[in-house]
Amino acid sequence: MISQTPVGLRILMLLAFSCQVASQTIVESLPGYSGKLPFTLETGYLGVGGLDEVQLFYYFIESERDPAVDPLLLWLTGGPGCSALSGLIYETGPLTFDFTASATRGKKPKLKLNPYSWTKVASIIFVDEPVGTGFSYATNSQGYNISSTLAAEELYTFIRKWLINHPQFINNPLYVAGDSYSGLIIPQVVQKIVKGNEVGTDPPMNLKGYVMGNPTTDENIDYNSRVDFAYRLNLISEELYMAAKEDCHGQYKDVDPCNEACISNVQAILDCTSSLNPSQILEPNCDYLSPKPEDLNWNKGILMDLTDHITPTPRGSDSDLWCRNDNYKYIYIWANDKTVQDALNIRPR
User: Fold this and answer.
1) Which of 22, 24, 174, 276 is packed most tightly, with the most Cβ within 10 A?
2) Could you state, in chain order, the average pLDDT of each consecutive group of 10 residues for the chain (349 residues)?
3) For strand 54-61 and strand 41-48, is the pairing parallel, antiparallel, or unpaired?
């Protein structure tokens, strides 16, 4: 049963819930975007864990329609370990990179508005989670000991504290949303919210549902379903599909090395699909995938060098040089620029 204590009194009673006062900043402009941002962007840190040793960084963007009544989304990017910026810039947020304008050698990435942003109808909290992702960090080594279960617990604490600090959103319809690996985290967070409401944990949350895009659920089921998916999209022949189904008994992961027929069929399926971009099957698979820190021998110098190597060709041109994964290089350059971090009020570490 949800507590009937007046919201204002509950908030006063809960001020002691946070050991460390949350830092939050309204960001009015960003490097790469011309002029003042036409939406409200707040960034900040919230401490979770027994002693607030885990500092989770977030981006909060108010709905461009009516933030007082529009839904509030807690957005969790997958990975695990993909920055919240990935979801904000490449998926549901109001900004994206202007790839054409950014293609000039040596120039820093440019930003433009995303006409399909979900923030046109909802307010969204993008969180760098779990700890160690993006700009989130821990104040001691123990804070980096993380699991999906602990990550869900920390996120539940995060949304509770966030609502305490933003009481004007307590009554808004709340949705927990995300993609990919967050499919393992979202159900746990939702369950904790439901149980918290049942026992009267403050603040009460107006949970309405959850949204999961291509979520990870069960590793074995997810992997095996790819063969059915490939068949239904006509990426493999019916003959090959039926042979694999019979010889492998629906188990295409960790195949018995003695089952030569199954191994042969699985290899044939891989041969048919390996040239396709698994995230966009209408495009070829790129040889040069999006760079990761370990691939780049991570240092500040390579970030500057990258601007001299990024010359993406706009889609639809006659060039064969364009690769969708090239677009993801921009985020490493932009987010690691000191002027960007200063604008976002990132803590020095």
Assistant:
1) 174
2) 48 46 88 97 97 98 98 95 95 93 75 98 98 97 95 98 98 97 97 98 97 92 94 97 97 94 97 89 69 41 39 46 78 95 95
3) antiparallel
